[in-house]
Structures are given as structure tokens and as C-alpha cells.
From TrEMBL:
<dbReference type="GO" id="GO:0008614">
    <property type="term" value="P:pyridoxine metabolic process"/>
</dbReference>
<dbReference type="InterPro" id="IPR021196">
    <property type="entry name" value="PdxT/SNO_CS"/>
</dbReference>
<keyword id="KW-0378">Hydrolase</keyword>
<dbReference type="InterPro" id="IPR029062">
    <property type="entry name" value="Class_I_gatase-like"/>
</dbReference>
<protein>
    <recommendedName>
        <fullName>glutaminase</fullName>
        <ecNumber>3.5.1.2</ecNumber>
    </recommendedName>
</protein>
<dbReference type="GO" id="GO:0016829">
    <property type="term" value="F:lyase activity"/>
</dbReference>
<dbReference type="GO" id="GO:0004359">
    <property type="term" value="F:glutaminase activity"/>
</dbReference>
<feature type="binding site">
    <location>
        <begin position="143"/>
        <end position="144"/>
    </location>
    <ligand>
        <name>L-glutamine</name>
    </ligand>
</feature>
<dbReference type="GO" id="GO:0005829">
    <property type="term" value="C:cytosol"/>
</dbReference>
<feature type="active site" description="Nucleophile">
    <location>
        <position position="79"/>
    </location>
</feature>
<dbReference type="Pfam" id="PF01174">
    <property type="entry name" value="SNO"/>
</dbReference>
<dbReference type="GO" id="GO:1903600">
    <property type="term" value="C:glutaminase complex"/>
</dbReference>
<feature type="active site" description="Charge relay system">
    <location>
        <position position="205"/>
    </location>
</feature>
<feature type="binding site">
    <location>
        <begin position="47"/>
        <end position="49"/>
    </location>
    <ligand>
        <name>L-glutamine</name>
    </ligand>
</feature>
<feature type="active site" description="Charge relay system">
    <location>
        <position position="203"/>
    </location>
</feature>
<keyword id="KW-0456">Lyase</keyword>
<dbReference type="InterPro" id="IPR002161">
    <property type="entry name" value="PdxT/SNO"/>
</dbReference>
Length: 255
């Protein structure tokens, strides 16, 4: 059985563990670097990203988290977890915060505004229905949520949503004090995948829809299949005495 770690510094980690339990999967709380050992995958939940970053620094977790992402094992960030995984974040508090990185995107930490502007909406996610069945839409719960402003070429966009009326203008201030608008579209990206990283700006763990968690577990199966395939290829390329063959003998050779 897969063992899924859930970063349990602050935020909705209990809700993720409960969601995993409902589909028969063990979720374990992670607060220290050595607790990442032996995990098949990791969820970084929603919460207050600045607080989570301070606690992660206190426990010296950032190097271990970056190493875990680099192993290729599946990692899923929801809301604040998305911010953690982004290569670049804007809209941060004074002084900024440390990021894990690995996801080629720019995220705005508080795109949709303050807590009172939290909302729920139906999101179109055809990929989720294709892979896990059910409706082509899912319920998106956005709580003081971030959003993805732009992504790299290797990032697959899974869902976007309309920008709600009254959403604060997104601007940055240059060194000369000149304000420059960086986002003016009527829709914004809220779910992506890049390799072993899944990220959602909303909270699937706060709904009864378990398909996002099942999708994440399927990513774990994919990673195991790739590892087994690589091991099989390595084994098949050695001779009876264990020496590495220059070419697999059962494959055509083109000169």
C-alpha cells in the first residue's frame, strides 16, 4: 500500500489525511526532514504560506523538501502548497518567503483578495473525467487563494476559472516606483501538472469529490512503473556474467 506524506506544519493537513482514508490510503503527518524517508509521495496542503515557511525554516525542512521533489516522486500542492512549489511568487509580504520550487510558473500569492473574497465555483476539468470518471466539472473551493499568472512550456494546464468581478488589480512596482500591470486577462490558471508535480489553487480536500486524490495516487503508480521499466532495461542490457552489453541483443541495430 502506498504511503502518502502530508506536510503537517499548519493548515488543512487533517482534511487531506481524512480524504486519503476515505479511499483506503494511509496518510502520515510530516513535520521533520527524517519523516520524508520511505514515503511514496507527498502532499503540501493549504494554509497560511508565510507561517508555513517560517515553521519549515525552523525545522530545516526546505533542503529535504527540495530533495524529495527532485527524486521524481509525486508531490501535490494545494493553495499554499502551490505557492511553495512555484519557481517564482509575487504579491508576498514584506521580506518575501522561501520557496521549494520545481514548478515552472509564476504564482500570485493572494490573487483573489482577502479572506472575505473567498468563493466556490464549478471548474471545467475534462482531464479529471477522462482519467477518473464522473462529471467533467469539479467544485473549486477558493479560500484567500493564489493563482498562476504564467507557466513554462512543459507545464500542462488542467483548469482555469473566470476572474471574479471586483478582484483587486494585479500590479508590481519597479525600482523606479513605476507601477506595471502584469495580469489583465479575464481567466486565470488554477490547476496544473508538470512531471511529478500536481498543483491546485483550490481545496479538493474540503469537498466529497475524491477524484483529485485518486489522480494523485495514479501519478504514484506511474512513477513506480517508470522506475520498474528503467530497472528492467538496465537488467536486460547485461550479459550472463553481469557485464554491461553495448546494445540490447533483442533490438534491431541501425548503423
Amino acid at each position: 500500500m502506498a504511503v502518502v506524506g502530508v506536510l503537517a506544519l499548519q493548515g488543512s493537513y487533517n482534511e487531506h489525511i481524512s480524504a486519503l482514508r476515505r479511499i483506503g490510503v494511509k496518510g502520515v503527518e510530516v513535520r521533520k526532514p527524517d519523516q520524508l524517508q520511505g514515503l511514496d509521495s507527498l502532499i503540501i496542503p493549504g494554509g497560511e504560506s508565510t507561517t508555513m515557511a517560517k515553521l519549515a525554516n525552523y525545522h530545516n525542512l526546505f533542503p529535504a523538501l527540495r530533495e524529495f521533489v527532485g527524486t521524481g516522486k509525486p508531490v501535490w500542492g494545494t493553495c499554499a502548497g502551490l505557492i511553495f512549489l512555484a519557481n517564482k511568487a509575487i504579491g508576498q509580504k514584506s521580506g518575501g518567503q522561501e520557496l521549494i520550487g520545481g514548478l515552472d510558473c509564476t504564482v500570485h500569492r493572494n490573487f483573489f483578495g482577502s479572506q472575505v473574497r473567498s468563493f466556490e465555483t464549478e471548474l471545467s476539468v475534462p482531464m479529471l473525467a477522462d482519467k477518473e470518471g464522473g462529471s467533467p466539472t469539479c467544485r473549486g473551493v477558493f479560500i484567500r487563494a493564489p493563482a498562476i499568472l504564467e507557466v513554462g512550456s512543459d507545464v500542462e494546464i488542467l483548469a482555469d476559472c473566470p476572474v471574479p468581478a471586483g478582484t483587486p488589480s494585479i500590479t508590481i512596482t519597479s525600482g523606479e516606483g513605476v507601477e506595471e500591470e502584469v495580469y489583465s486577462k479575464d481567466r486565470v490558471i488554477v490547476a496544473v501538472r508538470q512531471g511529478n508535480i500536481l498543483a491546485t489553487a483550490f481545496h479538493p480536500e474540503l469537498t466529497s469529490d475524491s477524484r483529485w486524490h485518486r489522480l494523485f495516487l495514479d501519478m504514484d503508480k506511474e512513477s513506480h512503473a517508470k522506475a520498474f521499466s528503467a530497472l528492467s532495461l538496465s537488467t536486460s542490457s547485461r550479459d550472463a556474467e553481469g557485464r554491461l552489453n553495448p546494445r540490447p541483443l533483442d533490438l534491431p541495430i541501425f548503423e
